[in-house]
C-alpha cells in the first residue's frame, strides 16, 4: 500500500499518469471514493499518459467510454448499476476486454465478477482541494512500484 496527499487536481492527474506507466494490456484499475473525490481526474491523467487525446469525462449514459490510446482504454462508471444482472455484467466485461486497460469507478457492484485488479485506488476527501489517496497493488512488485511513484511525486 502506498499513500499520498494531493492538494491540487494536477498532482492527482500526474499520479494517474504514473499508474498508467505500470499497466500492461489486460490490467484493471478500480477507483473508490465519494462523489467529487477525484476518480475521473485521476483517470484523465492516466488516459493522457496512454496517448488518449480529447476530453476524458465520466461515462454517464453508457456503461463505458472507450478510447484509442497506445492500447485500448476503457473507462467504466458502475455508479448507477445496482444489482447487476448477467446482461449488464456481460456488457461490462465486453467493454473491459482483455487487450487494453480498464479503469472502473464505483466498482463494487461488479467487482465480484471481475479479474483481479492490478491497482486499487481509494480517495478520501480531505476538505478543500486536499485528497488522501491510497494505492494498493495486486502483488509486492506492484506495491513497490506504487511506493516509488508516490516518493517521486512527493519529491
Ligand atoms: N487534489 C485534487 N485531486 C483531484 N481533484 C481535485 C483535487 N482538488 C480539487 N479537485 C477537483 O475535484 C473535482 C473532482 O471531480 P471528479 O469528477 O474527478 O470526481 P469523481 O471522483 O470522478 O466523482 P464522481 O463520483 O461524481 O464520478 C474536480 O472538479 C477537480 O478539479
Ligand atoms: Mg467520476
| Uncertain ranges | none
Helix content: 25-40%
Number of helices: 4
Which ligands does the model contain, each kind named once?
adenosine-5'-triphosphate, magnesium ion
Fill in the CATH topology: Rossmann fold
Please give the order of strands in the largest beta sheet. 1-7-6-2-5-4-3
- Oligomer description: single chain
Return the string of H and E elements: EHEHEEHEEEH
The biggest beta sheet is recorded as:
7 strands, mixed
Strands, count:
7
Question: For the record, what CATH class applies?
Answer: Alpha Beta
Name the CATH superfamily assignment.
P-loop containing nucleotide triphosphate hydrolases
Tell me the β content. 25-35%
Distance between the termini: 18 Å
Q: What would you call the structural class?
A: alpha/beta
The CATH architecture category equals: 3-Layer(aba) Sandwich
Question: How many domains would you count in the coordinates?
Answer: 1
Calculate Rg over CA atoms: 14 Å
Brief synopsis:
This protein is an alpha/beta fold and 155 residues long. It has 4 helices and 7 strands.
Structure in words:
This protein has 155 residues and is of the alpha/beta class. It has four helices and seven strands; from the N terminus they run βαβαββαβββα. A hairpin with a 3-residue loop joins strand 3 (64-68) and strand 4 (72-77). Helix 1 packs across helix 2 (39-49) and helix 1 packs antiparallel against helix 4 (140-154). The protein is globular, with a radius of gyration of 14 Å. Bound molecules: adenosine-5'-triphosphate and magnesium ion.
